[in-house]
Amino acid sequence: MENEKTSMDRRSFLKGAFATGAVATAAVTGVGTLAGCAAQPKEGKAGTSASDGKAAGGTYDFETAPDPIAEGDIKETVDADVVVIGAGFSGLCCALAAAENGANVVMLERMDHVIGRGGSIYAMNSKLTKEKGYECSVEEVAQRYKRMMGYHSYRVDGRKWMLHFNRSGEAMDWLIDRMTTASSVGGDDLTPVMEHWYEDPENINGEFPGTHEFLDGPNGKGPDDNPQQDVCANMALYCEKAGVDIRYETDAQQLVKDGDKVVGVVAKGKDGYVRFNGKKGVVIATGDFGQDKDMLEKFIPWAAHQTEFGGIWNGSGHKMAYWAGAAVDKSETPAPMIFCFQWRSITRQVRAFQGLMVNEDGRRYDNEDNVISHGGLALMHQKGNHAFAIWDDDYANEPGWQNHRYVDGPKVFDTPDDVRAYWQTVVDGPGTINMNGSGDIPVKMIKADTVEELVEKLGLPKDETLKTIEAYNGYCDAGVDEEFGKRKELLLPIKKGPFYGIECTPWFLSTTGGIRCNEDLQAMNADDEVIDGLYCLGSTVGDMYTNCYSTHFPGHNLGGTCLTFGYVTGRKLAGAE
């Protein structure tokens, strides 16, 4: 076997095949031949990279297959039915569903514990949504999905979306049954709740009901917490009880192929390399690639150069899949998850700010009636990739955004004075927040006695900004937005002090997609041929979103590619369906 590294040109990389004939002896054609390697996790903001960018041949370093790990360096071989790479939410769901249905499962996790981020999990027709009166028919979801396919330019896989619709309620019920009784495995009993959502009376840019959370655990006491960590911690305990062999601090590095079939993976643990064979399948559930600058520059350059952060993982599973023959999404552009979290500091809800937004020239640039994902993208079209929210004291009296955070639950704020008190804590705060373990986000809310003082403190051009505010107040008084046609219910003037403002920036939370696959979550090459034995879940699943991840279904990624796809794939690998 030759040990020379081999480089792939763009067409060969997308096709999942090596470019040169010289690679034949190192390609994945023989029994036990190794076919890929994962780099170590990186830390820091988007842009961290171990490489200097493109190599001399015009390709990035991650497009070059590494030397195979020598057979003599492998200290141990472990046989299983299913090998799951990654103990995040999607991997945990797959491993548990498979083990509960009789499969022998090994799960590899590079960290010394499981990690969960967020908490919003979208599912339709669960027992909780039915209890709350939000059952959804196939005709209704067809209308919703028709709109969403348009948002994604019809460059997504409709079969995967329907898989989520048809099976997410069942998967959520399965999860609810376990989370509410987790003390039986030494965990924390959690309370399932249904999040409220933004209803657009124009039925254009609103959200849809179905977002679940699990509260009352140590990390899920309130809206500022990270309840998904509690869910994942409970799932790990259930996996252990079901007999899943969880190998922590074990970094998967190279897939193993027998001919065209993926049959295992070589990982590095504390005591060296171990080969894990998966008789029924190897599942990649390794998260995003936001910490690999080269991958961002190749796949999402427009986002990589305009915003901070990018994710928490380095695409190790994506790379292993590519080197084993998998192609990238058919659109060739995995989608970023971009929000604006400064808006959350105004309303204490993950939703767009619908008051006055101006760019650094002091001018409005769009209709502010939006969802947080698309509103965040709009910021990226402005000079400096930022804009400024401006509002007055009376905004605290507006009941339209003081909705219930949870269906049948308490309101976010009980009184307008509670709103004002919250704003004051942000004004007096440290100037940053950390959202669900997603990095420190700058939040510098400004309070001023006059509009002129506010404009000066925000660093905006005085004359142009005051002209914009005067014109906006006129639209509010007339009930007609002559610039962008924002509906009159959202036209709230800026007249009564004190006045408030905050700089708003897009925040690159994660990447979604990257591995082409079918509705059975089997990885595919560029000819849409299945790579036998290789599956993908979670943020690696390709062709679910394009342009951007949309928040019209808040928590769709956790509820779809993680919960539903993990649950169904685990059952199928175990032979339960």
UniProtKB/TrEMBL annotation:
Superkingdom of this protein's organism: Bacteria
UniProt GO MF annotations: steroid dehydrogenase activity, acting on the CH-CH group of donors
Protein name: FAD-binding protein
Record's signal peptide: none
Any single biological process term in GO: steroid metabolic process
Coiled-coil ranges from the UniProt annotation: none
Statement: the UniProt record of this protein carries the keyword Flavoprotein: yes
Keywords: FAD, Flavoprotein, Oxidoreductase
Cofactor(s) in the UniProt record: FAD
PROSITE patterns listed in its UniProt record: TAT
FAD-dependent oxidoreductase 2 FAD-binding domain span: 81-545
